[in-house]
Each structure stands twice: as C-alpha cells, then as structure tokens.
Design goal:
By secondary structure, the protein is of the alpha+beta class. Among the domains are: about 55 residues, Ribosomal protein L10, N-terminal fragment, domain II (Molybdopterin biosynthesis moea protein, domain 2), CATH 3.90.105; about 70 residues, no CATH class. It has a three-stranded antiparallel sheet with strand order 2-4-3. The radius of gyration is 38 Å and the shape is elongated. The protein starts with 6 loop residues before the first strand and ends in a 21-residue tail after the last helix.
Length: about 190
C-alpha cells in the first residue's frame, strides 16, 4: 500500500518485553531496555508519504498499535429522485449558504440603489447617501450643520480647499431673515 502520510515513531517506552528487541535491531531502530520493557531512544521514520509501505514497517506499526492510515469511500455522486448530484452540490456547508445569501443581498442592494428603488437593504444606504449630499451642499455653500460639526470632530472630512478658504475669508455675518422664495423642484414631489 502507498503511505498516505509520513509516519514517525516518537521516542519513549513501547510496553513490549525485552524478548522482541531483535525485531527492533533488524529494523535499525535505536532502543534500550528500561524497567523491564523496550524503550525507543530516538525517533524513527517508518513511512514516507507517497512511498510504498514495506512489510517490516507494517509489522512495526502493528506491534506498536499505530494506525496512521484512513480508509473510506470517495463520493462520486448521489442518486436522488431520478437525478445524479455531484459531490460539490452535496457538500454544501452552512457557511457556504450564508456566504451565497450575503452575496445575493449585496446584489439586491446594489441593484436597488442603481434603480433608485427603496428596499429593506437599500434604504440605509439611501439615507446615508442623502446625508452625504446634504453635508456636501452645506460645505460648498459655507453653511454649517450641527451634525457636521460632530462628524468632523469624530472623523476628519476631506473638504475641497476652496471651501476652507471661503470659511477663513468670510467674516461672521448676522443671520438673515428667512425669505419666502421658492426652492423650485429641489426635493421633488413627495
């Protein structure tokens, strides 16, 4: 049989009586007798991955009760209700289902944002984008919003250089009275 992995016998007691020491010497395993049993002095490599296991190596593993190899069936397909399912379909894990679901939610949110259709996943993004637009308009006009002051204290916003120059040049003005001018169709019909 071809070895599936490297097998190294660690140093230590084997639990075998001294009568079997000749077997270990035939395999050139360094041993000594300690407290009435055979003890392996230094580690010994029995099998190398991909190389055929010889009879003496198999006998040593059997005597030491080491079973490093696994045996089983490899799934080729599953027959279910007249269909043959491949292993990649059958081996779906909960993590892969969550990953696919998250990908679908991201696609729905992106489509909804591009089509400007509010959905449960796109509304938070729409609100955030609208707030960013309001902040950008107020920065450009020189008008400061209280929430923007809080945002700028929390995280510095990269504002255009011209807007910064306008703030420095502009002297504090007295608040103007509100006028009844129409804002036009700025916010659309709601």
């Amino acid at each position: 049989m071809i070895a599936q992995c490297d097998v190294i016998v660690p140093p230590g007691p084997t639990g075998m009586d001294p009568s079997a020491i000749s077997f270990f010497h035939a395999l050139q395993v360094t041993t000594k007798i300690n407290k009435g049993q055979i003890e392996i002095v230094k580690e010994f490599q029995v099998c190398i991955k991909g190389v055929e296991v010889n009879n003496s190596g198999a006998a040593l593993l059997k005597k030491l009760n080491i079973t490093p190899f696994e045996y089983g069936m490899e799934l080729i397909g599953v027959y279910s209700n007249g269909s043959i399912l491949t292993p990649d379909i059958v081996s779906i894990t909960p993590d892969s289902i969550v990953e696919r679901f998250q990908s679908a939610v991201n696609n729905i949110a992106a489509m909804s944002l591009q089509l400007n259709l509010p959905t449960a996943v796109s509304v938070p993004h729409m609100i955030a984008n609208a707030f960013k637009n309001v902040c950008a308009i107020s920065l450009e006009s020189g008008f400061e919003i209280e929430a923007m002051k809080n945002l700028s204290a929390a995280a510095p916003v990269a504002a255009p250089v011209q807007a910064e120059e306008k703030k420095v040049e502009a002297a504090p003005e007295e608040p103007e009275e509100e006028s009844d001018q129409s804002m036009g169709d700025l916010f659309g019909d709601f």
